[in-house]
Amino acid sequence: MTLNMLVGKFRRETDDIVSIELVDADGHPLPAFSAGSHIDVHIGDGLVRQYSLCNSPADTDRYVIGVLKDPKSRGGSAALHGMLAEGLRLRIGEPRNLFPLDETADRTLLFAGGIGITPMLAMAERLKMLGRRFELHYWGRSLPRMAFLDRIAASDFKDNVRIHCDDAPEDQRLDPDDVLPNPEAGTHLYVCGPQGFIGCVLERARTRGWLESRLHKEYFGTIVSDDPAGGGAFTIRIAHTGAIIPVNPGQSAVAALAAHGIELPVSCEQGVCGTCLTRIVDGIPDHRDSYLTDDEREANAVFLPCCSRAKSECLVIDIL
């Protein structure tokens, strides 16, 4: 289901990041959302992009997102920045949460890199409202490039936040390892940002003995991964019809299916969001995503056809 929205107002947070407030076009209350949720924004020309909600989950009359104008943009963020105007109509999907917050944790650590601050703001709002123990660590290259600093400074959770950046005083230029504690029962860690930042935090947490069940991630920015269209040919068989779909070298599985009239829902097209998650009936996938856990990859029960391919000659998939 999609919602018809208006841009209520927008604000230039940095030279390349804008915050956008969306309100219902007819003034109706909006569907509730939980901390960590995102919305799919239909930008035009078939472009659908995901943006985390960064306002308080207690809000019922607006959604707020932060959009980075990525120099490596595939069209989405650049188009959205170019069309912004108060009163602009946009169509969005209802909030979904692929990065849920465990509200029962004894203590929560939030690690944000760059534009990855957006879901963490909603998490901080929620944790403060619940009276939970938490810390928010926010890294950036320089203070002028870090969005939402004014909002943080004026927030009820400002005392729970530490800012770390390259051009700050020496005591703030910390490596994630400097503020990453040893694992404690009841403590959960959430990390969001560019791939390299997330990889650094998770690697060091695992080295210290953190359990995977207490580590939570969400990627922002361009994912550096194998070319989804790279690799040899294989075939896809649709389980309930028996239809055989060839996937050629230089062609993604999603594109091959679309060429035969089978349109899967897609959003990020980089194996990050999970929108196109598809069940495997038989065959061995070549996982190239950043969404599935290691256990889910080993199970080979699902794959993301926007970026992943096949190790076996044929993948049998379940599409209803």
From TrEMBL:
<keyword id="KW-0560">Oxidoreductase</keyword>
<feature type="domain" description="2Fe-2S ferredoxin-type">
    <location>
        <begin position="234"/>
        <end position="320"/>
    </location>
</feature>
<keyword id="KW-0408">Iron</keyword>
<dbReference type="InterPro" id="IPR050415">
    <property type="entry name" value="MRET"/>
</dbReference>
<dbReference type="InterPro" id="IPR012675">
    <property type="entry name" value="Beta-grasp_dom_sf"/>
</dbReference>
<dbReference type="InterPro" id="IPR017927">
    <property type="entry name" value="FAD-bd_FR_type"/>
</dbReference>
<dbReference type="GO" id="GO:0016491">
    <property type="term" value="F:oxidoreductase activity"/>
</dbReference>
<dbReference type="InterPro" id="IPR039261">
    <property type="entry name" value="FNR_nucleotide-bd"/>
</dbReference>
<dbReference type="Pfam" id="PF00111">
    <property type="entry name" value="Fer2"/>
</dbReference>
<dbReference type="GO" id="GO:0046872">
    <property type="term" value="F:metal ion binding"/>
</dbReference>
<dbReference type="InterPro" id="IPR001041">
    <property type="entry name" value="2Fe-2S_ferredoxin-type"/>
</dbReference>
<keyword id="KW-0001">2Fe-2S</keyword>
<keyword id="KW-0479">Metal-binding</keyword>
<dbReference type="InterPro" id="IPR036010">
    <property type="entry name" value="2Fe-2S_ferredoxin-like_sf"/>
</dbReference>
<dbReference type="InterPro" id="IPR017938">
    <property type="entry name" value="Riboflavin_synthase-like_b-brl"/>
</dbReference>
<protein>
    <submittedName>
        <fullName>Oxidoreductase</fullName>
    </submittedName>
</protein>
<dbReference type="GO" id="GO:0051537">
    <property type="term" value="F:2 iron, 2 sulfur cluster binding"/>
</dbReference>
<feature type="domain" description="FAD-binding FR-type">
    <location>
        <begin position="1"/>
        <end position="102"/>
    </location>
</feature>
<keyword id="KW-0411">Iron-sulfur</keyword>
<keyword id="KW-0285">Flavoprotein</keyword>
<dbReference type="InterPro" id="IPR006058">
    <property type="entry name" value="2Fe2S_fd_BS"/>
</dbReference>
